[in-house]
Write a structure and sequence with these properties.
By secondary structure, the protein is of the alpha/beta class. It has two domains: 2-175 and 358-375, Glycogen Phosphorylase B (Rossmann fold); 191-354, Rossmann fold (3-Layer(aba) Sandwich), CATH 3.40.50. Helix content is 41%, strand content 16%. It contains 13 helices and 13 strands. It has helices at residues 13-27, 68-83, 93-109, 135-143, 153-162, 191-194, 214-227, 241-251, 266-270, 287-294, 325-336, 339-354, 358-374; strands spanning 2-6, 31-36, 50-54, 87-91, 116-120, 147-150, 169-171, 200-205, 230-235, 257-261, 275-278, 299-302, 317-320. The strands form two sheets. It has a seven-stranded parallel β-sheet, with helices on both faces. A six-stranded parallel β-sheet has the order 10-9-8-11-12-13, with helices on both faces. Helix 8 links the parallel strand 9 (230-235) and strand 10. The longest helix is centred in the N-terminal third of the chain and has 17 residues, at 93-109. The chain starts with a strand and ends in a 5-residue tail after the last helix. The protein binds ligand GMT. GO terms for molecular function: glycosyltransferase activity. Residues 11-179 form the Glycosyltransferase subfamily 4-like N-terminal domain. Pfam families: Glyco_transf_4 (PF13439), Glycos_transf_1 (PF00534). This is N-acetyl-alpha-D-glucosaminyl L-malate synthase BshA. Residues 196-349 form the Glycosyl transferase family domain.
Length: 379
């Protein structure tokens, strides 16, 4: 199949899912065309089936806002015609589903009919998409997609609650390549560099936005380190980072907290991690938690959104109400206080992650593509 994938190329769950999906589809022989404004961060152009086409938006003094959707839909039209692309898969509704629909319309005028699959990822529905400024366009473009998927049952329910959606939404969860060779043999797990013997290592990875409740991460860690020797690894960049650094200073724990910035080597950090913290306000799925679990790291998270669909209470970790810092610290300590308990949770976390192996999830996307190609195309 010749598939165009439209996504955000930056660090962030939806772009990562789109990129990993494209790479895996290419390995299976599909021809994949990534169409976005810069090369996706996890994209290695090492497979002849992978192509990348950049969307350029020239600056013009008249424009207060650059018309990205227009440039994207034009690029889609050109690339579909040039490469005989058969299907569009857009990740994150805003503005990709809207731009995809416009491309379909333009192509129809030239006698080309192409189906569009839209994958909803989370904030395109919850925090951003449901804002009155966007809602009519998001509703319209979801209803005009030939097939819609969401990354969790929770996000599907939320979509029906927030929008007037008249079509079926298929749940296809986030995935992970469980058998990936995560550890470089020449640079095995470098735990000793980061912490001394007897210290537990706790990690948080995100885009440091408000929804991640970064101050909670620091406060939970503060409570943990008062009871046991521990270090905190903070991985990622975003608007809440500076505030977190200040909070660490205020609590007098700066020497125990390492801020890494964005990293493409998260496996190297997760390989020496004992526990992962994700106390988010909401999380449609929580890919970062799954990535941790695939490295055998148990998760302490909030119980909001789709998190209970990936972090299983008392098995791969524990879940608490949003903002329950005491509860999360207590649960963390119950795992970290005993080597046996930690070992058990590590094994369990890996076991749960295996359910989300790419080998189980890829056929679900392929089935959706087949269905889209065989349906009457919506316009
Ligand atoms: O919140 C993020 O980390 C970024 C965001 C995105 O769209 O890139 O992530 C969303 O999509 C991920 C992949 O499907 C999900 O695993 C995340 O839970 C979701 N984030 C939120 O719902 C806040």
């Amino acid at each position: 199949m010749k598939i165009a994938i439209v996504c955000y190329p930056t660090f962030g769950g939806s772009g990562v899912v789109a990129t990993e999906l494209g790479l895996e589809l290419a390995k299976k022989g599909h021809e994949i065309h990534f169409i976005t404004y810069s090369q996706p961060v996890r994209l290695a152009l090492l497979n002849p089936n992978i192509h990348y086409h950049e969307v350029n938006v020239p600056e013009y003094p008249l424009f207060h806002f650059q018309p990205y959707e227009l440039a994207l839909s034009s690029k889609l039209v050109d690339m579909v015609k040039l490469h005989k692309i058969e299907l569009l898969h857009v990740h994150y509704a805003i503005p990709h589903a809207y731009a995809g629909y416009m491309a379909k319309k333009m192509l129809k005028d030239e006698g080309i009919r192409i189906p569009m699959v839209t994958t909803l990822h989370g904030t395109d529905i919850t925090l951003v998409g449901s804002h009155p400024f966007y809602k009519p366009a998001v509703t319209f473009s979801i209803n005009k997609s030939d097939i819609v998927t969401s990354v969790s049952q929770s996000l599907k329910d939320e979509t029906y609650k927030l929008f007037n959606i008249k079509k079926d939404i298929e749940v296809i969860p986030n995935f992970i390549e469980v058998n990936k060779n995560r550890i470089d043999e020449n640079a095995p797990c470098q735990r000793a560099l980061m912490a001394s013997k007897g210290e537990r290592i706790i990690t948080h990875i995100s885009n440091f936005r408000e929804v991640k409740r970064i101050p909670d991460v620091v406060k939970i860690f503060d409570k943990i380190q008062k009871e046991i020797p521990a270090k905190l690894m903070m991985v990622g960049e975003g608007p809440e980072k500076e505030k977190a650094e200040k909070l660490c200073e205020k609590l007098g724990i700066s020497d125990k907290v390492i801020f890494f910035g964005n990293s493409n080597d998260i496996d190297k950090i997760l390989c020496y991690t004992d526990l992962f913290l994700l106390p988010s306000q909401t999380e449609s799925f929580g890919l970062a938690a799954l990535e941790a679990m695939a490295c055998g790291v148990p998760v302490i998270s909030s119980n909001s959104g789709g998190l209970p669909e990936v972090n299983f209470e008392g098995v791969s970790g524990y879940l608490s109400d949003v903002g329950d810092i005491d509860g999360m610290a207590k649960n963390a300590l119950s795992i970290l206080n005993s080597d046996e308990e930690l070992h058990k949770f590590k094994q369990n976390a890996l076991g749960v992650a295996k359910q989300f192996d790419i080998l189980n999830i890829l056929p679900l996307y392929e089935a959706v593509y087949e269905k889209a190609l065989n349906k009457k195309i919506l316009l």
